[in-house]
Every structure is written in C-alpha cells, then in structure tokens.
Amino acid sequence: MIEYGLDEIGLLGKRIARSLQPGDVVGLTGSLGAGKTTLARAILAALGLEGEAPSPSFAIVQPYAPPEVTLPVLHVDLYRIEDAAEIDELGLFDDSAHQVLLIEWPERMGQRVPAEMLNLTIDFADEARRRLTATVPPAWEGRWPPQ
C-alpha cells in the first residue's frame, strides 16, 4: 500500500510510467472522485503528453501514440459500459502486445479482465490524501513497487 497526497500524484505517475512496458495493462479501480483519471493523467504526462489528457468518459477509449508519448497507450474509461460483452467491440486487445492499456473501472470487464493486469485500487485516506493498493500479477514482479 502507498499513501500519497494529491500534490504527490505527479511523482507517483512518473514512477509508474518508468515501470511500464508494451503489453502492460493497468487497471485503476476506486469510487467516483477517488483519483483514477488524475493518476492516469499523471502517467500520461510522465510519458511525455503535453497539456491535460481529456477524460475518456464519453469516447470510452482515448488513444495516444508516439511522438505524443513515448509508448503507445490506450486510456480507457469503462464507467458507461453496462454489459461486459460490449468490451469485445472496443478492440482493446487488437494490438495489446505493442501498447499499454490504462483502464478505469476494469471491474466492468467481468471475466475479460486480463490475468496479467496490475490493478491499482485508490481509496480516500482523507480529503487531501489517497491510499493506493496494488494487486500485482507475476508479470509485474520486480517492477512493483515503482521506484
């Protein structure tokens, strides 16, 4: 578990970004307003994205590719997905070996959650601090916690 202040989100995003490799899937779980999109934006900024990344709430999938970022990334927000079968239509795994998936609300995937997904659960510690708990798959051993 990592506890951090909202002013430390950029540093946490940098640490996670340094650990990313093509093919990685990172799930961001937590209640509304916990900081899933904020953490995703910090990771994207650390990968070189200039300006603020739009929330993919309506588009569902927001792609980023070099030279905009150092690694191809799909930032996904599954909040509006009502049936896990809809996931297949998104094509998230069409090129999964060559890109990183940042998935908000991965629990909406049902049985389609990748076995090798690093799941980061964000909870409120208090108004200005968050608690991040990681479920670390074997593919992430040696890379988690990020340095």
**Overall tally of structural domains:** 1
Please tell me the CATH architecture by its name: 3-Layer(aba) Sandwich
Helix content: 10-25%
Class by SSE composition: alpha/beta
Task: Say what oligomer this is.
Answer: single chain
InterPro entries: P-loop_NTPase (IPR027417), T6A_TsaE (IPR003442)
Main location: cytoplasm
Family: Belongs to the TsaE family.
Protein name: tRNA threonylcarbamoyladenosine biosynthesis protein TsaE
Task: Give the arrangement of secondary structure elements.
Layout: E1 2-5, H1 9-19, E2 25-30, H2 36-46, E3 61-64, E4 73-77, H3 87-90, E5 100-104, E6 118-126, E7 129-135
Parallel strand pairs: 2-5, 2-6, 4-5
Antiparallel strand pairs: 1-7, 3-4, 6-7
Helix pairs in contact: 1-2
Structure description:
- The chain has 147 residues and is α/β, with parallel strands linked by helices.
- The protein has a single domain, classed as Rossmann fold, CATH 3.40.50.
- It has helices at 9-19, 36-46, 87-90; strands at residues 2-5, 25-30, 61-64, 73-77, 100-104, 118-126, 129-135.
- Strands 1-7-6-2-5-4-3 form a seven-stranded mixed β-sheet, with helices on one face.
- Helix 1 (9-19) crosses helix 2 (36-46).
- Its main location: cytoplasm.
- It is found in: Cytoplasm.
- Pfam families: TsaE.
- Belongs to the TsaE family.
- InterPro entries: P-loop_NTPase, T6A_TsaE.
